[in-house]
């Protein structure tokens, strides 16, 4: 992380669900425009109100600034730089520019939105032809700042509009259903980017259960990162789907097949680890779905683990995992954290989402089996 902000997280500032905040900042003129559009009707920023400048609709939600607003966690902030005389074209942008943008964004956020809960900092800068994405992410309640398309932005001293969208509280439904978007070509292939998004959501959910699972989330995040680096790399197109990744890595001799050697972090072996964990998830969710009110989540989790992932883990990891499971909240509390609704709603949601998770699992299993990749070291 580049910048950090330890904004105090006061419960009094917890944000209502579905609340939409728009904050317009004109730094050069020292004018601040704020508009709060909240379902809760609660004003959460204190800057003077003025009609907001036009911001580009997000292609995903139509609710705010940049093209690639990521709606993870509770909060999405979209930083838009409106067009100015010195509009910088995407071609001229450098990583440094992007970083500066991100830092500027962070400063604005820290200054004007001190109520944002959590620690956050700039963790990722990237851009392609169309957009700059300085991403500011916090823990659990995430803050993503996405710039408007580069062709319409100036990076310094211009009108900056910051649109903060307070998302509905994180819900596991979206995460699980996101596995649906992985599947393409009549369920005959899986898009890696969407697959990773599903995992990111799961990790976020796990993090909300407490730091006891941080050893698990660190490993998962590390593997997600490895795959994201491939996607961003010069052969990124080869990693677009699982099928194309397998074909590419095998044909280019990029996979250590019998023991770890020159390619210890191939895409194939990295996805295999996540794939095995997906089996655990599948079993666990199915147990949760069919469990009775008095079932213990720790037992369900442990059983699912023993029937899947544990077979690939050494003794010390198995023991650590088993102890960590004991810290899982009781079933009703666990359902609450999922934020899906009543217990019946959770069961319905699982019934709806599970087939997608299963399809992704089955496809990957078949693909790996065809290429003898199920035992990659
Ligand atoms: C809800 C509780 C979450 C409990 C998580 C259960 C899974 C327990 C897995 C324990 C993994 C321990 C960490 C270390 C793993 C690595 O040694 C091992 C091998 O990697 P290597 O070959 O590179 O060395 N890595 C792995 O097997 C990959 C593990 C990835 C685990 C991802 C788990 C994400 C869990 C998401 C939870 C979401 C729960 C949603 C339920 C409603």
TrEMBL record:
Its main location: membrane. Keywords: Cell membrane, Cytoplasm, Endosome, Golgi apparatus, Lipid transport, Lipid-binding, Membrane, Nucleus, Transport. It is a peripheral membrane protein. It holds the Pfam family GLTP. It is found in: Cell membrane; Cytoplasm, Cytosol; Endosome membrane; Golgi apparatus, trans-Golgi network membrane. Residues 192-339 form the Glycolipid transfer protein domain. Coiled coil: none annotated. It catalyses: N-(9Z-octadecenoyl)-sphing-4-enine-1-phosphate(in) = N-(9Z-octadecenoyl)-sphing-4-enine-1-phosphate(out); N-(hexadecanoyl)-sphing-4-enine-1-phosphate(in) = N-(hexadecanoyl)-sphing-4-enine-1-phosphate(out). The keyword Cell inner membrane does not apply. It comes from the Eukaryota. The keyword Metal-binding does not apply. InterPro entries: GLTP_sf, Glycolipid_transfer_prot_dom. PANTHER family: CERAMIDE-1-PHOSPHATE TRANSFER PROTEIN, GLYCOLIPID TRANSFER PROTEIN-RELATED. Belongs to the GLTP family. This is Ceramide-1-phosphate transfer protein.
